[in-house]
Amino acid sequence: MSEKTTSDKMLGVLGGMGPLASAQFMLRLTLLTPAARDQDHIPAVLWSDPRVPDRTKGKLSGGADPLPWLLRGVRGLRQAGCGAIAIPCNTAHGWYEEMAAEGVPILHIVDAAAAELHKVAPRGTIGVMGTAATLAMRLYQDRLEQQGWTCITPTDAEMAGLVSPAIASVKANRVAEAYAPLATVVTSLAERGATAVVLGCTEIPLGIQAGPYATLGVPLVDTIDALALAAIAWARS
Amino acid sequence: MSEKTTSDKMLGVLGGMGPLASAQFMLRLTLLTPAARDQDHIPAVLWSDPRVPDRTKGKLSGGADPLPWLLRGVRGLRQAGCGAIAIPCNTAHGWYEEMAAEGVPILHIVDAAAAELHKVAPRGTIGVMGTAATLAMRLYQDRLEQQGWTCITPTDAEMAGLVSPAIASVKANRVAEAYAPLATVVTSLAERGATAVVLGCTEIPLGIQAGPYATLGVPLVDTIDALALAAIAWARS
Fold it and tell me: Which of B20, B48, B50 lies closest to A46 in CB terms?
Protein backbone atom coordinates (compact mmCIF):
# COMPACT_ATOMS: atom_id res chain seq x y z
CA MET A 1 0.00 0.00 0.00
CA SER A 2 2.98 2.33 -0.37
CA GLU A 3 3.06 5.36 -2.68
CA LYS A 4 5.74 8.01 -2.99
CA THR A 5 4.88 10.74 -0.50
CA THR A 6 6.77 13.67 0.94
CA SER A 7 6.53 12.80 4.61
CA ASP A 8 6.18 9.50 6.43
CA LYS A 9 6.10 11.15 9.82
CA MET A 10 2.69 11.38 11.47
CA LEU A 11 2.11 14.50 13.57
CA GLY A 12 -0.10 14.27 16.63
CA VAL A 13 -2.16 17.32 17.57
CA LEU A 14 -3.61 17.46 21.07
CA GLY A 15 -6.44 19.91 20.54
CA GLY A 16 -9.94 20.82 21.55
CA MET A 17 -8.60 23.51 23.90
CA GLY A 18 -10.44 25.23 22.36
CA PRO A 19 -11.73 23.41 19.32
CA LEU A 20 -11.74 26.51 17.09
CA ALA A 21 -8.05 27.05 17.80
CA SER A 22 -7.16 23.46 16.94
CA ALA A 23 -9.24 23.58 13.73
CA GLN A 24 -7.41 26.80 12.81
CA PHE A 25 -4.11 25.05 13.60
CA MET A 26 -4.99 22.30 11.09
CA LEU A 27 -5.92 24.93 8.49
CA ARG A 28 -2.69 26.87 8.97
CA LEU A 29 -0.61 23.65 9.04
CA THR A 30 -2.05 22.88 5.61
CA LEU A 31 -1.77 26.37 4.11
CA LEU A 32 1.80 26.90 5.37
CA THR A 33 3.03 23.57 3.93
CA PRO A 34 4.58 23.79 0.45
CA ALA A 35 2.47 21.28 -1.49
CA ALA A 36 1.37 20.59 -5.06
CA ARG A 37 -1.13 17.80 -4.27
CA ASP A 38 -2.75 16.00 -1.32
CA GLN A 39 0.15 13.57 -0.95
CA ASP A 40 2.65 16.41 -0.27
CA HIS A 41 0.81 17.46 2.91
CA ILE A 42 1.69 16.31 6.42
CA PRO A 43 -0.09 13.27 7.86
CA ALA A 44 -1.66 14.23 11.17
CA VAL A 45 -4.08 13.01 13.79
CA LEU A 46 -6.00 15.67 15.72
CA TRP A 47 -7.33 14.57 19.10
CA SER A 48 -9.90 17.30 19.72
CA ASP A 49 -11.44 16.66 23.10
CA PRO A 50 -13.09 19.85 24.38
CA ARG A 51 -14.20 17.99 27.51
CA VAL A 52 -10.76 18.58 29.08
CA PRO A 53 -11.53 20.56 32.24
CA ASP A 54 -10.69 24.27 32.11
CA ARG A 55 -6.92 24.61 32.40
CA THR A 56 -6.99 28.02 34.07
CA LYS A 57 -9.46 26.91 36.74
CA GLY A 58 -7.40 23.75 37.25
CA LYS A 59 -4.22 25.74 37.93
CA LEU A 60 -5.57 28.77 39.78
CA SER A 61 -8.82 28.03 41.56
CA GLY A 62 -9.07 24.37 42.50
CA GLY A 63 -11.03 23.26 39.43
CA ALA A 64 -11.06 19.68 38.14
CA ASP A 65 -7.63 18.36 37.20
CA PRO A 66 -7.16 18.35 33.40
CA LEU A 67 -4.10 16.06 33.54
CA PRO A 68 -5.94 12.69 33.21
CA TRP A 69 -7.70 14.04 30.10
CA LEU A 70 -4.47 15.38 28.66
CA LEU A 71 -2.73 12.04 29.21
CA ARG A 72 -5.62 10.18 27.58
CA GLY A 73 -5.12 12.29 24.47
CA VAL A 74 -1.34 11.85 24.46
CA ARG A 75 -1.78 8.08 24.75
CA GLY A 76 -4.39 8.05 21.97
CA LEU A 77 -1.98 9.92 19.69
CA ARG A 78 0.88 7.59 20.61
CA GLN A 79 -1.31 4.57 19.82
CA ALA A 80 -2.18 6.13 16.44
CA GLY A 81 1.53 6.11 15.62
CA CYS A 82 2.35 9.81 15.99
CA GLY A 83 6.06 10.63 16.16
CA ALA A 84 5.70 14.05 17.81
CA ILE A 85 2.88 16.06 19.35
CA ALA A 86 1.89 19.71 18.95
CA ILE A 87 -0.52 21.22 21.48
CA PRO A 88 -2.29 24.37 20.21
CA CYS A 89 -3.19 25.45 23.75
CA ASN A 90 -0.65 27.51 25.65
CA THR A 91 -2.09 26.91 29.12
CA ALA A 92 -1.92 23.12 28.69
CA HIS A 93 1.87 23.52 28.57
CA GLY A 94 1.64 23.95 32.35
CA TRP A 95 1.52 20.11 32.37
CA TYR A 96 4.31 19.75 29.78
CA GLU A 97 6.65 17.55 31.82
CA GLU A 98 3.89 15.11 32.81
CA MET A 99 2.77 14.76 29.18
CA ALA A 100 6.32 14.48 27.82
CA ALA A 101 6.97 11.66 30.30
CA GLU A 102 4.64 9.49 28.16
CA GLY A 103 7.55 9.19 25.72
CA VAL A 104 6.38 11.05 22.59
CA PRO A 105 8.36 14.28 21.95
CA ILE A 106 6.21 17.39 22.40
CA LEU A 107 6.98 20.54 20.38
CA HIS A 108 6.92 23.32 23.01
CA ILE A 109 4.75 26.24 21.96
CA VAL A 110 6.91 28.79 23.81
CA ASP A 111 10.00 27.66 21.88
CA ALA A 112 7.98 27.94 18.66
CA ALA A 113 6.86 31.46 19.61
CA ALA A 114 10.41 32.48 20.55
CA ALA A 115 11.62 31.42 17.08
CA GLU A 116 9.06 33.75 15.47
CA LEU A 117 9.74 36.52 18.00
CA HIS A 118 13.40 36.50 16.96
CA LYS A 119 12.29 37.53 13.45
CA VAL A 120 10.31 40.62 14.54
CA ALA A 121 11.87 41.74 17.84
CA PRO A 122 15.19 40.00 18.45
CA ARG A 123 15.76 41.82 21.75
CA GLY A 124 14.25 44.39 24.13
CA THR A 125 10.88 44.68 25.80
CA ILE A 126 8.02 42.56 24.52
CA GLY A 127 4.43 42.12 25.62
CA VAL A 128 2.95 38.74 26.53
CA MET A 129 -0.78 38.10 26.48
CA GLY A 130 -2.30 34.82 27.63
CA THR A 131 -4.72 33.26 30.07
CA ALA A 132 -4.43 34.20 33.72
CA ALA A 133 -2.93 30.76 34.37
CA THR A 134 -0.33 31.02 31.59
CA LEU A 135 0.84 34.36 32.99
CA ALA A 136 0.72 33.19 36.63
CA MET A 137 2.79 30.09 35.77
CA ARG A 138 5.30 32.42 33.99
CA LEU A 139 5.31 29.97 31.05
CA TYR A 140 6.52 32.72 28.71
CA GLN A 141 8.29 35.11 31.06
CA ASP A 142 10.83 32.63 32.43
CA ARG A 143 11.75 31.12 29.06
CA LEU A 144 11.89 34.44 27.21
CA GLU A 145 13.79 36.32 29.94
CA GLN A 146 16.41 33.54 29.92
CA GLN A 147 16.87 34.37 26.23
CA GLY A 148 17.38 38.08 26.91
CA TRP A 149 13.94 39.62 26.41
CA THR A 150 12.20 41.77 29.05
CA CYS A 151 8.52 40.77 29.36
CA ILE A 152 5.59 42.97 30.27
CA THR A 153 2.06 41.64 30.72
CA PRO A 154 -1.45 43.13 30.93
CA THR A 155 -2.50 44.62 34.28
CA ASP A 156 -4.85 42.66 36.51
CA ALA A 157 -7.67 45.01 35.52
CA GLU A 158 -6.95 44.43 31.81
CA MET A 159 -6.91 40.68 32.38
CA ALA A 160 -10.21 40.63 34.28
CA GLY A 161 -12.03 43.18 32.15
CA LEU A 162 -10.66 42.56 28.67
CA VAL A 163 -8.40 39.55 28.00
CA SER A 164 -10.22 36.82 29.94
CA PRO A 165 -13.70 37.80 28.65
CA ALA A 166 -12.35 37.94 25.07
CA ILE A 167 -10.89 34.43 25.36
CA ALA A 168 -14.26 33.19 26.66
CA SER A 169 -16.04 34.86 23.71
CA VAL A 170 -13.93 32.94 21.19
CA LYS A 171 -14.61 29.65 22.97
CA ALA A 172 -18.35 30.45 22.67
CA ASN A 173 -18.00 31.14 18.89
CA ARG A 174 -18.52 34.89 19.42
CA VAL A 175 -15.24 35.60 17.68
CA ALA A 176 -15.90 39.13 16.40
CA GLU A 177 -16.69 40.41 19.90
CA ALA A 178 -13.18 39.51 20.99
CA TYR A 179 -11.42 41.99 18.70
CA ALA A 180 -12.00 45.29 20.47
CA PRO A 181 -10.94 44.25 23.99
CA LEU A 182 -7.87 42.41 22.68
CA ALA A 183 -6.87 45.33 20.45
CA THR A 184 -7.13 47.67 23.44
CA VAL A 185 -4.68 45.53 25.39
CA VAL A 186 -2.24 45.21 22.46
CA THR A 187 -2.22 49.01 22.17
CA SER A 188 -1.75 49.42 25.92
CA LEU A 189 1.25 47.08 25.91
CA ALA A 190 2.76 48.97 22.96
CA GLU A 191 2.29 52.28 24.79
CA ARG A 192 4.11 50.78 27.79
CA GLY A 193 7.10 50.00 25.53
CA ALA A 194 6.45 46.58 24.00
CA THR A 195 8.14 46.33 20.58
CA ALA A 196 6.19 43.15 19.80
CA VAL A 197 3.35 41.25 21.46
CA VAL A 198 3.15 37.48 21.82
CA LEU A 199 -0.45 36.24 21.54
CA GLY A 200 0.22 33.48 24.08
CA CYS A 201 -3.24 31.91 24.12
CA THR A 202 -4.48 30.30 20.91
CA GLU A 203 -7.88 32.00 21.19
CA ILE A 204 -6.22 35.44 21.03
CA PRO A 205 -5.05 35.33 17.38
CA LEU A 206 -8.56 34.16 16.38
CA GLY A 207 -10.09 37.18 18.11
CA ILE A 208 -7.50 39.69 16.88
CA GLN A 209 -7.82 38.48 13.29
CA ALA A 210 -11.58 39.12 13.41
CA GLY A 211 -10.77 42.83 13.16
CA PRO A 212 -8.27 45.17 11.42
CA TYR A 213 -5.29 43.85 13.39
CA ALA A 214 -2.72 44.88 10.81
CA THR A 215 -3.30 48.52 11.75
CA LEU A 216 -2.38 48.06 15.42
CA GLY A 217 1.16 49.17 14.64
CA VAL A 218 3.08 46.56 16.63
CA PRO A 219 4.29 43.16 15.39
CA LEU A 220 2.23 40.27 16.77
CA VAL A 221 3.40 36.68 17.26
CA ASP A 222 0.56 34.27 16.44
CA THR A 223 1.21 31.15 18.51
CA ILE A 224 -1.01 29.04 16.23
CA ASP A 225 1.14 29.88 13.21
CA ALA A 226 4.35 29.60 15.23
CA LEU A 227 3.46 26.07 16.34
CA ALA A 228 2.36 25.10 12.81
CA LEU A 229 5.72 26.26 11.44
CA ALA A 230 7.55 24.24 14.12
CA ALA A 231 5.46 21.18 13.22
CA ILE A 232 6.23 21.57 9.50
CA ALA A 233 9.94 21.87 10.30
CA TRP A 234 9.71 18.66 12.35
CA ALA A 235 7.81 16.78 9.64
CA ARG A 236 10.27 17.81 6.92
CA SER A 237 13.45 17.20 8.97
CA MET B 1 -12.13 12.32 35.73
CA SER B 2 -15.70 13.10 34.80
CA GLU B 3 -17.14 16.59 34.41
CA LYS B 4 -20.56 17.61 33.17
CA THR B 5 -20.32 18.00 29.40
CA THR B 6 -22.87 18.26 26.63
CA SER B 7 -21.81 15.26 24.57
CA ASP B 8 -20.14 12.02 25.48
CA LYS B 9 -20.13 10.79 21.90
CA MET B 10 -16.82 10.98 20.11
CA LEU B 11 -17.02 11.76 16.39
CA GLY B 12 -14.45 10.26 14.05
CA VAL B 13 -13.42 12.30 11.01
CA LEU B 14 -11.63 10.48 8.21
CA GLY B 15 -9.91 13.38 6.51
CA GLY B 16 -6.81 14.46 4.66
CA MET B 17 -8.65 14.13 1.33
CA GLY B 18 -7.74 16.93 0.99
CA PRO B 19 -6.33 18.26 4.23
CA LEU B 20 -7.67 21.80 3.72
CA ALA B 21 -11.20 20.42 3.35
CA SER B 22 -10.94 18.38 6.55
CA ALA B 23 -9.50 21.34 8.48
CA GLN B 24 -12.40 23.45 7.19
CA PHE B 25 -14.77 20.67 8.28
CA MET B 26 -13.38 20.90 11.84
CA LEU B 27 -13.75 24.70 11.77
CA ARG B 28 -17.35 24.53 10.56
CA LEU B 29 -18.19 21.70 12.98
CA THR B 30 -17.07 24.03 15.77
CA LEU B 31 -18.72 27.23 14.50
CA LEU B 32 -22.05 25.50 13.73
CA THR B 33 -22.27 23.93 17.22
CA PRO B 34 -24.28 25.92 19.77
CA ALA B 35 -21.73 26.33 22.57
CA ALA B 36 -20.99 28.68 25.43
CA ARG B 37 -17.61 27.18 26.43
CA ASP B 38 -15.09 24.56 25.32
CA GLN B 39 -16.92 21.75 27.12
CA ASP B 40 -20.10 22.28 25.04
CA HIS B 41 -18.30 21.41 21.81
CA ILE B 42 -18.24 17.97 20.20
CA PRO B 43 -15.36 15.62 21.00
CA ALA B 44 -13.74 14.49 17.76
CA VAL B 45 -10.71 12.74 16.39
CA LEU B 46 -9.56 13.78 12.92
CA TRP B 47 -7.47 11.21 11.08
CA SER B 48 -5.91 13.42 8.40
CA ASP B 49 -3.78 11.21 6.19
CA PRO B 50 -3.15 12.95 2.87
CA ARG B 51 -1.05 9.96 1.72
CA VAL B 52 -4.24 8.11 0.69
CA PRO B 53 -3.75 7.49 -3.04
CA ASP B 54 -5.80 9.71 -5.37
CA ARG B 55 -9.39 8.46 -5.29
CA THR B 56 -10.26 9.53 -8.82
CA LYS B 57 -7.20 7.82 -10.34
CA GLY B 58 -7.98 4.73 -8.26
CA LYS B 59 -11.51 4.49 -9.65
CA LEU B 60 -11.04 5.65 -13.23
CA SER B 61 -7.51 5.07 -14.45
CA GLY B 62 -5.92 2.12 -12.67
CA GLY B 63 -4.16 4.17 -9.97
CA ALA B 64 -3.08 2.74 -6.60
CA ASP B 65 -5.96 1.37 -4.53
CA PRO B 66 -6.92 3.81 -1.74
CA LEU B 67 -8.98 1.21 0.16
CA PRO B 68 -6.20 -0.14 2.42
CA TRP B 69 -5.43 3.46 3.50
CA LEU B 70 -9.10 4.23 4.07
CA LEU B 71 -9.49 1.11 6.20
CA ARG B 72 -6.41 2.00 8.22
CA GLY B 73 -8.02 5.32 9.07
CA VAL B 74 -11.38 3.76 9.92
CA ARG B 75 -9.66 1.28 12.24
CA GLY B 76 -7.60 4.04 13.87
CA LEU B 77 -10.80 5.99 14.57
CA ARG B 78 -12.55 2.87 15.90
CA GLN B 79 -9.59 2.21 18.20
CA ALA B 80 -9.79 5.82 19.45
CA GLY B 81 -13.36 5.11 20.57
CA CYS B 82 -15.31 6.99 17.90
CA GLY B 83 -19.03 6.16 17.73
CA ALA B 84 -19.61 7.37 14.16
CA ILE B 85 -17.44 8.55 11.29
CA ALA B 86 -17.80 11.53 8.95
CA ILE B 87 -15.71 11.59 5.77
CA PRO B 88 -15.31 15.08 4.27
CA CYS B 89 -14.36 13.67 0.86
CA ASN B 90 -17.16 12.83 -1.55
CA THR B 91 -15.12 10.56 -3.83
CA ALA B 92 -14.05 8.37 -0.90
CA HIS B 93 -17.74 7.42 -0.56
CA GLY B 94 -17.16 5.18 -3.59
CA TRP B 95 -15.75 2.74 -1.00
CA TYR B 96 -18.57 3.33 1.50
CA GLU B 97 -19.72 -0.28 1.88
CA GLU B 98 -16.20 -1.61 2.43
CA MET B 99 -15.55 1.03 5.11
CA ALA B 100 -18.94 0.58 6.79
CA ALA B 101 -18.25 -3.17 7.03
CA GLU B 102 -15.65 -2.32 9.72
CA GLY B 103 -18.59 -1.81 12.07
CA VAL B 104 -18.57 1.92 12.90
CA PRO B 105 -21.58 3.79 11.42
CA ILE B 106 -20.56 6.21 8.66
CA LEU B 107 -22.62 9.38 8.06
CA HIS B 108 -23.15 9.38 4.26
CA ILE B 109 -22.23 12.73 2.72
CA VAL B 110 -24.87 12.38 -0.05
CA ASP B 111 -27.64 11.94 2.53
CA ALA B 112 -26.29 15.00 4.37
CA ALA B 113 -26.30 17.01 1.12
CA ALA B 114 -29.84 15.83 0.27
CA ALA B 115 -31.08 17.11 3.63
CA GLU B 116 -29.70 20.58 2.83
CA LEU B 117 -30.91 20.42 -0.78
CA HIS B 118 -34.47 19.89 0.49
CA LYS B 119 -34.26 23.31 2.13
CA VAL B 120 -33.31 25.23 -1.04
CA ALA B 121 -34.68 23.18 -3.95
CA PRO B 122 -37.12 20.52 -2.74
CA ARG B 123 -37.78 19.23 -6.27
CA GLY B 124 -36.92 19.78 -9.94
CA THR B 125 -33.63 19.97 -11.78
CA ILE B 126 -30.45 20.44 -9.82
CA GLY B 127 -26.79 20.60 -10.81
CA VAL B 128 -24.16 18.30 -9.36
CA MET B 129 -20.47 19.17 -9.41
CA GLY B 130 -17.79 16.78 -8.21
CA THR B 131 -14.67 14.92 -9.22
CA ALA B 132 -14.74 12.93 -12.45
CA ALA B 133 -14.90 9.74 -10.36
CA THR B 134 -17.80 10.94 -8.17
CA LEU B 135 -19.81 11.75 -11.29
CA ALA B 136 -18.81 8.54 -13.12
CA MET B 137 -19.82 6.43 -10.09
CA ARG B 138 -23.17 8.30 -10.06
CA LEU B 139 -22.77 8.73 -6.27
CA TYR B 140 -25.15 11.70 -6.30
CA GLN B 141 -27.27 11.04 -9.39
CA ASP B 142 -28.60 7.63 -8.30
CA ARG B 143 -29.45 8.66 -4.73
CA LEU B 144 -30.95 12.04 -5.66
CA GLU B 145 -32.96 10.74 -8.62
CA GLN B 146 -34.48 8.07 -6.35
CA GLN B 147 -35.68 10.98 -4.21
CA GLY B 148 -37.30 12.74 -7.18
CA TRP B 149 -34.70 15.25 -8.34
CA THR B 150 -33.43 15.42 -11.93
CA CYS B 151 -29.65 15.80 -12.00
CA ILE B 152 -27.52 17.57 -14.57
CA THR B 153 -23.72 17.60 -14.48
CA PRO B 154 -20.93 19.60 -16.14
CA THR B 155 -19.97 18.62 -19.69
CA ASP B 156 -16.81 16.60 -20.29
CA ALA B 157 -15.13 19.75 -21.57
CA GLU B 158 -16.13 21.68 -18.43
CA MET B 159 -14.81 18.85 -16.25
CA ALA B 160 -11.46 18.62 -18.05
CA GLY B 161 -10.94 22.33 -18.52
CA LEU B 162 -12.48 23.87 -15.42
CA VAL B 163 -13.65 21.62 -12.56
CA SER B 164 -10.76 19.13 -12.33
CA PRO B 165 -8.03 21.82 -12.56
CA ALA B 166 -9.84 23.91 -9.92
CA ILE B 167 -9.96 20.95 -7.51
CA ALA B 168 -6.24 20.38 -8.07
CA SER B 169 -5.56 24.10 -7.36
CA VAL B 170 -7.22 23.88 -3.94
CA LYS B 171 -5.23 20.75 -3.05
CA ALA B 172 -2.08 22.74 -3.90
CA ASN B 173 -3.15 25.67 -1.63
CA ARG B 174 -3.84 27.89 -4.66
CA VAL B 175 -7.38 28.44 -3.44
CA ALA B 176 -8.13 31.83 -5.03
CA GLU B 177 -7.33 30.51 -8.53
CA ALA B 178 -10.17 28.01 -8.22
CA TYR B 179 -12.95 30.58 -8.00
CA ALA B 180 -13.27 31.70 -11.62
CA PRO B 181 -13.44 28.25 -13.29
CA LEU B 182 -15.85 26.93 -10.65
CA ALA B 183 -18.08 30.03 -10.91
CA THR B 184 -18.19 29.57 -14.70
CA VAL B 185 -19.50 26.02 -14.29
CA VAL B 186 -22.07 27.00 -11.62
CA THR B 187 -23.39 29.64 -14.02
CA SER B 188 -23.44 27.19 -16.93
CA LEU B 189 -25.48 24.67 -14.87
CA ALA B 190 -27.93 27.41 -13.86
CA GLU B 191 -28.33 28.45 -17.50
CA ARG B 192 -29.10 24.82 -18.35
CA GLY B 193 -31.93 24.84 -15.77
CA ALA B 194 -30.41 23.92 -12.43
CA THR B 195 -32.37 25.53 -9.57
CA ALA B 196 -29.59 24.68 -7.11
CA VAL B 197 -26.07 23.26 -7.39
CA VAL B 198 -24.56 20.64 -5.08
CA LEU B 199 -20.83 21.24 -4.55
CA GLY B 200 -20.17 17.50 -4.41
CA CYS B 201 -16.43 17.61 -3.83
CA THR B 202 -15.17 19.19 -0.60
CA GLU B 203 -12.53 21.24 -2.44
CA ILE B 204 -15.26 23.01 -4.45
CA PRO B 205 -16.82 25.06 -1.60
CA LEU B 206 -13.31 26.15 -0.57
CA GLY B 207 -12.66 27.43 -4.10
CA ILE B 208 -16.08 29.02 -4.57
CA GLN B 209 -15.87 30.80 -1.22
CA ALA B 210 -12.58 32.40 -2.28
CA GLY B 211 -14.63 34.71 -4.52
CA PRO B 212 -17.97 36.56 -4.52
CA TYR B 213 -20.00 33.35 -4.59
CA ALA B 214 -23.15 34.93 -3.12
CA THR B 215 -23.67 36.82 -6.38
CA LEU B 216 -23.87 33.71 -8.55
CA GLY B 217 -27.64 33.78 -8.25
CA VAL B 218 -28.28 30.09 -7.61
CA PRO B 219 -28.42 28.35 -4.22
CA LEU B 220 -25.35 26.22 -3.49
CA VAL B 221 -25.17 23.16 -1.24
CA ASP B 222 -21.81 23.12 0.58
CA THR B 223 -21.09 19.46 1.33
CA ILE B 224 -18.63 20.41 4.10
CA ASP B 225 -21.34 22.29 5.99
CA ALA B 226 -23.96 19.64 5.19
CA LEU B 227 -21.77 16.91 6.68
CA ALA B 228 -20.92 19.07 9.72
CA LEU B 229 -24.63 19.61 10.39
CA ALA B 230 -25.28 15.86 10.10
CA ALA B 231 -22.43 15.21 12.54
CA ILE B 232 -23.79 17.74 15.04
CA ALA B 233 -27.25 16.12 14.80
CA TRP B 234 -25.66 12.72 15.48
CA ALA B 235 -23.65 14.00 18.44
CA ARG B 236 -26.68 15.70 20.00
CA SER B 237 -29.13 12.82 19.42
Answer: B48
